[in-house]
Specification:
With 150 residues, the protein is mainly alpha-helical. The protein folds into two domains: 67 residues, no CATH class; 66 residues. It is 57% helix and 8% strand. It has a two-stranded antiparallel ribbon. It starts with a strand and ends in a 5-residue tail after the last helix.
Amino acid sequence: MGEGTEMAGSSAGDGRRRAVVRRREREAGGPRDLRIKISYNDAEITIVRAAADRDNTALASWVGTAALAVAKETVVPVSADAKDVLQEVLRSRAQLRRVGNNVNQIARVLNSDGEVSDAQLRAALDALEAAVRRVDAATVQLMRERRPRS
């Protein structure tokens, strides 16, 4: 079997196995002929193989590309917890946008000599305060997760 191909566990309709082709990326700047050895335990290699399979990329190529992306800071690795915090920041931003829209509507009414009830104003301000607290908490958590570069 040539480099970049692997036999798949699935079979064709007639019972024969079919080859799954793994694509290697073109090597920018010339061929990669310098090699390093890395070690993984069984659980780690399973994770790395799954990622390479997901991207339909040869394992060594995937590892090299991922390492280079992190080194160039094109990709910044984050923990699973940080991903949850980032999702919370995105949800909070959406909530802030909605609350900001409400505040703009209240301002439009007040600027046109209309009336806004105390309850309407209090509800908008409470929602704004809650959304700002969520963004602040998520920001603090992200800052804790950030590792200093040395």
